[in-house]
Design a protein that fits this description.
The structure is a single chain. The protein has 8 helices and 12 strands. By secondary structure, the chain is an alpha/beta fold. The strands form 3 sheets. Strands 2-1-3-4-5 form a 5-stranded parallel beta sheet, with helices on both faces. It has a 4-stranded antiparallel beta sheet with strand order 6-7-8-9, covered by helices on one side.
């Protein structure tokens, strides 16, 4: 299970790899393209949930790529433009062409993750996909920002909710502390593993008050954490 499949069309090696690393750590499946032509080939051969697209691409410009995609589909797949072009008209023209959002370089990684999540959530809602995640008596609602255990409300902080949501997103996956820190704190540099440990302990404590005889989060020693099956 993945949070979604994302295609990155960006010719700058460093930026492409940075975005790819951050999205992968957050739980997304990522395909990297380094030209407009390569991105088009991937787009035509696979199904993606979102496109992150630079404008000044070799082979085929970002504008040309977006235009072809919009002509071939009904606009259900969101496209986020990431570009150094920052005039109002640049943004207006791309939004009129069919882009869902526009981020100007240089950009903040945490903002990028938030924009991606917003577009994918909007897509799921429009498609009528149920947002509640349910596992072992736990119900997590991303829309209502709430967690219930056996019908009892569990009051989590924003960070705690983000950690639980990440673990829920792929219950079979073991998330490292670096994964969790990058996704929930939006940081590319892992600073203090004790921060993650403290938040994880708080989550377990709150769940334990409702169901003291059950475990919901498993520690995989030397690796990280996962939902207990």
């Amino acid at each position: 299970m993945t949070l979604g499949k994302i295609l990155i069309a960006e010719d700058d090696n460093d930026i492409n790899h940075l975005i790819s690393d951050v999205l992968t750590r957050a739980g997304y499946t990522v395909t990297q393209a380094f030209s407009g032509t390569e991105a088009k080939l991937y787009w035509n051969s696979e199904a993606f949930d979102l496109l992150l697209c630079d404008l000044m691409l070799p082979g085929m410009t970002g504008e040309e790529l977006v235009a072809e995609i919009m002509e071939a589909q009904d606009g259900t797949t969101p496209i986020i433009i990431i570009s150094a072009k920052n005039t109002v008209m640049d943004k207006v023209d791309l939004l009129k062409l069919g882009a869902s959002d526009y981020i100007t370089k240089p950009f903040d990684i945490e903002e990028l993750l938030a924009r991606v999540e917003v577009q994918l959530r909007k897509k799921r809602v429009e498609a009528g996909v149920k947002e509640d995640l349910v596992l072992n008596g736990l119900r997590l609602s991303k829309e209502r920002y709430s967690v219930q255990l056996d019908g009892t409300d569990i009051h989590l902080t924003a960070r705690e909710f983000g950690i639980l949501q990440l673990l829920f997103s792929n219950p079979e996956k073991v998330f490292t502390k670096e994964n969790i820190f990058a996704s929930v704190w939006g940081a590319t540099e892992f600073i203090d593993e004790n921060t993650v440990n403290v938040h994880m302990s708080n989550i377990r404590g709150k769940l334990g008050k409702v169901a003291p005889d059950r475990e919901f989060i498993e520690t995989v020693w030397g690796i990280g954490f996962k939902m207990k099956s």
